[in-house]
Amino acid sequence: MALTKATYSMISGALKNVFDFGAVGNGVADDTAAIQAAIDFTGDLQYGGTVYFPAGEYVVTNTLSIPAKVSLYGESIGSRQGNNEQCGAVLYKKHADDCVVFNKTVSGWQEAVNIGIVGIDAANTGGSGFVINTSDVLLTNCKVFAPYVHGFVVGDGTATSYANELIGCYSNNPQTGVNYFIDSTLFRGHNLLSDGGLRGMVIQPAATNWSIGECHFEGFTEIGITIGSAQGKTYGKTYLAGTSATGLVGVQAYGSASGCALIGLQIAFNAVRVGSKGLEIKDTATSITLRDSSISSAENGVFDVTTGSPAATYIVGTTFNACATGIKAASEGSKYIGNTFIGTTSVDISHDAGGNGLWLGNRFSLTGTSAIYPGVTGQAGNFSGNAVKNSYGYTTKNSSYIASIATGSTITHGLAATPFANGSVITVTPYGAGLTSPVYITAMGATTFTVSWTGTSPNSFTWEARLLCDY
Prior knowledge:
Layout: E1 16-17, E2 26-30, H1 32-44, E3 49-53, E4 56-60, E5 64-66, E6 70-74, E7 89-93, E8 100-102, E9 110-113, E10 115-118, E11 130-132, E12 137-140, E13 143-145, E14 152-154, E15 165-167, E16 170-172, E17 180-182, E18 188-190, E19 193-195, E20 199-203, E21 210-213, E22 216-220, E23 223-227, E24 232-235, E25 238-242, E26 249-253, E27 258-263, E28 265-268, E29 277-281, E30 286-291, E31 294-296, E32 300-304, E33 314-316, E34 319-321, E35 325-329, E36 335-337, E37 340-342, E38 347-351, E39 358-360, E40 370-374, E41 387-389, E42 397-405, E43 410-412, E44 426-430, E45 440-444, E46 448-452, E47 459-466
Parallel strand pairs: 1-3, 2-4, 3-6, 4-7, 5-8, 6-9, 7-10, 8-11, 9-12, 10-13, 11-14, 12-15, 13-16, 14-17, 15-18, 16-19, 17-20, 18-21, 19-22, 20-23, 21-24, 22-25, 23-26, 24-27, 25-28, 26-29, 27-30, 28-31, 29-32, 30-33, 31-34, 32-35, 33-36, 34-37, 35-38, 36-39, 38-40, 39-41
Antiparallel strand pairs: 42-47, 43-46, 44-47, 45-46
């Protein structure tokens, strides 16, 4: 009886080693056919399996298509030469299409672990690194260097693209695109890194219910994170640092983005660049929350110019450090609560448009030209329907009891601007007897007001003065 020699990969349930299918991983030979043969063989098995890549450099000259039931696993050897750290298996992309594509049409979980892609070859004139056009795919510790378009494409914007996840992945210097292009609902990203490229991450309008955390995007030349979708959040520390280019934006919420909570962001530029913005909220974006974050060295820390009605922007517990303008306020129904402004060189809040907001308990820097610039009304203390109160460095309400004061005397009100002389804003209540007329406010100034009456003088009074914004 003739005996057939079997490899370990032929045993049911075993990892399918690409070496058993003819791959050599020496960085010279074309391993495309051998790797795809290992993938197809595994996909034809009843329960699929995992294709194993020993440490090596695998030349690929065409797209690797990953069907249902197939996962990829690269040997992790701790470190490799150059920028390929912790990716034992590296695919050298020498073609103009996408490199690794997950495109199953049936349900089932898939993974890729410890796989690197390098696109520095002259033949790399198109395509992206990893592309997920399906659901339930997890990429862990996968890295892409110098892709032509995007590093990672997650989702195709359709209803069948959802619940995909990236953990510990890295993208470096895409030539024409962005590092992470997200178009999948229920996307999860944790501990993601990127360096270079136009943008760190783009979250498309169809990618609702997303979350990312503990991420680090730096070296971008346009925008750190672009958000066009609804119902997403960041958590933990997400750090964004741009280049020295002008017009940089840390995070941009655009279009109809809504219901997004940005928590724990650290946005920093290496100097105040012309046109730079920490957080930009534009178009008709609504209900964008920035909480427990910090923004440093931006021309505008928050550029809140959305025309959404109401916009309901919520900025709370955020520190603005060395920005030219802390917040450019031009939206309806904004809430800026408990923020701290340090070293502002121009204006802490520039009120350019919008009303019906609440700006409460902020700590202004007192280092710029104004704590709040009344761009709408031109009159300090009048912010077109925005309630401003209980803030350090911008006193909007003051009161006192005076035991004895003569008619015609001046009182120092201590407010941040000239109060308005009407009964609802300044009140003087006499406590003594003998007045034969009401108490009149006969002069109003930036720091004092004058009280006059007829009858007993001196007399005792309580007074209260407040700006129009404190109501």
